[in-house]
């Protein structure tokens, strides 16, 4: 016979069952997590913080004025929320600037067809006159190498391998294509190319070129490299098929300046009983310069602040020290993440866990875990508490680039996993603006992070 829940409660009330049996620990957690989500959805502040960060400050590439303003702003936000301590960590960051807007076209007969491009971060500029040469299309480094120096020297290489649309995870599709962006210029330069053009890393067909970081291998001539929009890539590919001897022209004005002084921004709620154990929740404050840096990673930053705000507002007193960290320079150097981990090591800080949001502000679906089998199993045991909120995927995955160095010191890493289908529509592009973010989805993500923070703090991971 099944005993109805209300009958169990009645028995507890009249003393037939022990009082502790009326409400299990997870039932009390469920009640508190409900309060977390209700607070976020009814009174959440993260969207307003994001509005200021994106529309009043905008792009925040390391070393830029926008990055400086973002440090000042997020420090003030955490101070205004009454966090126990707010402080800055100095870090030297790369300082690459785009300069005047890029220009590009290909010659189709007597007609010049303009196409949208954006210099890749870290690239050198073209000459003041620009670069004009025959362009050859390849889909892989193997295909490029098979052509040999004789067919590549003096030409521009066009890397046109799309992200695989059949991959259900767009991050898997991204990983399958992004080597062209990171190493394309090096591979082309080895064979004597004078420039490289890379198809934008997105499955969406549009006119926004998606920038991102690139690097030069040792000992190769530094050739200019840029991303071309997906619509532009399709036009260029068709033109090459129609006329393999087609000429392509591009001009860009970027340069790398000396490293600049910047900061991580850290706010904390002090632990009441285990203050020496630290749990971090964070995002990266820098963004590329083409847009407002909304999904990448303004959303992660404001969610990290919101997670602490919610717990404080609800009167939760943490056992362990909880920190919200705005990491600087994830996009083109990871200096902030390394600086934070170095500081933790030097100060003998013990980081129990770190949670990062760097996949956009879309509907949360789960958390990726990196750590020991036992610790991951303990976190996974809490999954039923998240199911009511559509969060089922607690398991394999990455933690996040900024918190990666903490993993080397023994911290368990968690990455918030939102719905990824639209993320690369906006990633590193001019379309990454506030209006692409849903307030409700953003607040749900912040609540999910607050709930996970609460559970790790309350139960630990041992």
CATH architecture of the largest domain: 3-Layer(aba) Sandwich
Q: What is the end-to-end distance?
A: 37 Å
> What's the level 1 CATH class of the largest domain?
Alpha Beta
For the CA atoms, what is the radius of gyration? 25 Å
Q: What strand order characterises the main sheet?
A: 1-10-12-11-13-16-14-15
What overall form do the CA principal axes indicate?
A: elongated
Number of helices: 15
Residue share in helices? Answer: 25-40%
DSSP strand (E) fraction? 15-25%
Task: Look up the CATH topology of the largest domain.
Answer: Aminopeptidase
What would you note in describing this structure?
- This protein has 462 residues and is of the alpha/beta class.
- It folds into two domains: 26-94 and 258-459, Zn peptidases (Aminopeptidase, 3-Layer(aba) Sandwich), CATH 3.40.630; 99-253, Glucose Oxidase, domain 1 (3-Layer(bba) Sandwich).
- Helices cover 37% and strands 24% of the residues.
- It is built from 15 helices and 16 strands.
- The chain has helices at 5-14, 25-43, 46-57, 65-80, 141-152, 170-175, 179-190, 230-242, 294-313, 335-346, 373-380, 383-386, 404-407, 423-426, 439-459; strands at 85-97, 103-108, 111-114, 117-119, 131-138, 156-159, 195-199, 225-228, 247-251, 255-269, 274-284, 320-327, 350-356, 364-370, 393-396, 412-418.
- The strands form two sheets. An eight-stranded mixed beta sheet has the order 1-10-12-11-13-16-14-15, sandwiched between helices. Strands 3-2-9-5-6-7-8-4 form an eight-stranded mixed beta sheet.
- Helix 9 (294-313) links the parallel strand 11 (274-284) and strand 12 (320-327).
- Helix 2 (25-43) runs antiparallel to helix 15 (439-459), helix 3 (46-57) runs antiparallel to helix 9 and helix 5 (141-152) runs parallel beside helix 7 (179-190).
- It is elongated, with a radius of gyration of 25 Å.
- The two termini are 37 Å apart.
- The model is unreliable at 1-22 (pLDDT under 50).
């Amino acid at each position: 016979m099944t005993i109805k829940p209300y009958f169990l409660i009645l028995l507890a009330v009249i003393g037939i069952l022990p009082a502790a049996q009326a409400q299990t620990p997870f039932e009390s957690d469920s009640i508190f997590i409900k309060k977390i989500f209700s607070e976020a959805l009814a009174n959440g502040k993260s969207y307003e913080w994001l509005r200021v960060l994106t529309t009043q400050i905008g792009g925040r590439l390391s070393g830029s004025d926008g990055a400086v303003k973002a440090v000042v702003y997020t420090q003030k936000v955490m101070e205004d929320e009454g966090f126990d301590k707010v402080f800055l960590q100095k870090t030297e960051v790369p300082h690459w600037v785009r300069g005047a807007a890029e220009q590009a076209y290909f010659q189709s007969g007597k007609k010049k067809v303009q196409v949208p491009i954006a210099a890749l971060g870290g690239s050198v500029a073209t000459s003041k006159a620009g670069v004009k040469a025959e362009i050859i299309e390849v889909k892989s480094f193997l295909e490029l190498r098979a052509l040999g120096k004789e067919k590549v020297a003096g030409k521009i290489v066009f890397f046109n391998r799309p992200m695989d649309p059949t991959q259900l995870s767009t991050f898997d599709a991204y990983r399958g294509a992004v080597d062209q962006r990171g190493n394309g210029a090096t591979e082309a330069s080895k064979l004597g190319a004078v420039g490289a053009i890379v198809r934008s890393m997105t499955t969406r067909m549009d006119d926004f070129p998606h920038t991102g970081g690139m690097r030069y291998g040792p000992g190769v001539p530094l050739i200019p490299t840029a991303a071309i929009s997906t619509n532009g890539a399709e036009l260029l590919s068709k033109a090459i098929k129609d006329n393999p001897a087609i000429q392509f022209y591009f001009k860009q004005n970027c340069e790398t300046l000396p490293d600049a002084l910047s900061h991580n921004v850290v706010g904390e709620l002090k632990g009441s009983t285990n203050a020496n154990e630290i749990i971090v929740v964070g995002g990266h404050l820098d963004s590329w310069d083409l847009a407002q840096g909304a999904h990448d990673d303004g959303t992660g930053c404001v969610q990290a602040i919101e997670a602490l705000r919610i717990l404080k507002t609800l009167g939760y007193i943490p056992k362990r020290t909880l920190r919200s960290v705005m990491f600087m320079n994830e996009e083109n150097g990871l200096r902030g993440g390394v600086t934070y981990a170095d500081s933790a090591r030097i100060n003998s800080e013990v980081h129990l866990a770190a949670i990062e949001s760097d996949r956009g502000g879309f509907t949360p679906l789960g958390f990726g875990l990196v750590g020991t089998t036992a610790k991951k199993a303990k976190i996974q045991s809490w999954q039923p508490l998240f199911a009511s909120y559509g969060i089922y995927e607690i398991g394999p995955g990455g933690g996040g680039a900024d918190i990666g160095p903490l993993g080397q010191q023994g911290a368990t890493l968690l990455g918030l996993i939102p719905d990824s289908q639209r993320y690369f529509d906006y990633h590193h592009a001019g379309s990454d603006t506030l209006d692409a973010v849903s307030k409700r989805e953003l607040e749900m993500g912040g609540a999910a992070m607050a709930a996970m923070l609460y559970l790790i703090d309350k139960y630990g991971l041992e």
